[in-house]
Amino acid sequence: MLDKVKLALRITTDAFNSEISDLISAAQLDLGVAGVVLPDVLDTLVGQAIVTYVKMNFGDPDNYERLKQSYDEQKAQLVTATGYTRWTGQM
Predict the structure, then answer these.
(1) What is the rounded CA–CA span in Å between residue 22 and residue 32?
(2) CB neighbours of 78 closer than 8 A, spacing ≥ 6?
(3) DSSP code at position 36
(4) pLDDT, tens digit, 9 for 90 and up, residues 46-79
(5) DSSP 40
(6) Which residues lie below 8 Å from residue 85, measured CB to CB, with a gap of 6+?
(7) pTM of the model
(8) Which of 2, 19, 45, 74 lies at 20 to 30 Å from 39 by C-alpha?
(9) CA distance readout (Å), 58 to 26, 30, 66
């Protein structure tokens, strides 16, 4: 996931690996708090939400509001999609 996010950010150096890894973890936790159950192998939808979260929070992006809206929409879609949540009472 780190390599995928670095590619999306257009970063080729390892200087920001720790910060980016922390943001990936934060994205996963944020999705988890919303009720999204992360698959063992991240699929494209979850991976794209994580990339968007990192882009939104890495540095000081000029397009923060657009990225925030995009991430919130992606998260909402995952929360309402079959197979991405495990709420009480579900099997």
Answers:
(1) 15
(2) 31, 34, 36, 45, 46, 49, 84, 85
(3) B
(4) 999 999 999 999 999 999 999 999 999 999 999 9
(5) S
(6) 35, 36, 37, 78, 79
(7) 0.91
(8) 19
(9) 12, 15, 14
